[in-house]
Amino acid sequence: MFDYKLLSALAAVVEQAGFERAAQVLGLSQSAISQRIKLLEARIGQPVLVRATPPVPTEIGRRLLNHVQQVRLLERDLQSQVPALDEEGRPERLRIALNADSLATWWASAVGEFCAEQHVLLDLVVEDQTVGLKRMRAGEVAACLCASERPVAGARSVLLGAMRYRALASPAFIARHFPEGVRADLLARTSALVFGPDDFLQHRYLAALGVEGGFEHHLCPSSEGFIRLIEAGLGWGLVPELQVREALARGDLVELLADKPIDVPLYWHHWRNGGQLLGLLTEQLIAAASSKLQVLS
Question: Among 71-80, 169-178, 261-270, 271-280, where is mean pLDDT lowest?
Answer without folding.
Answer: 71-80
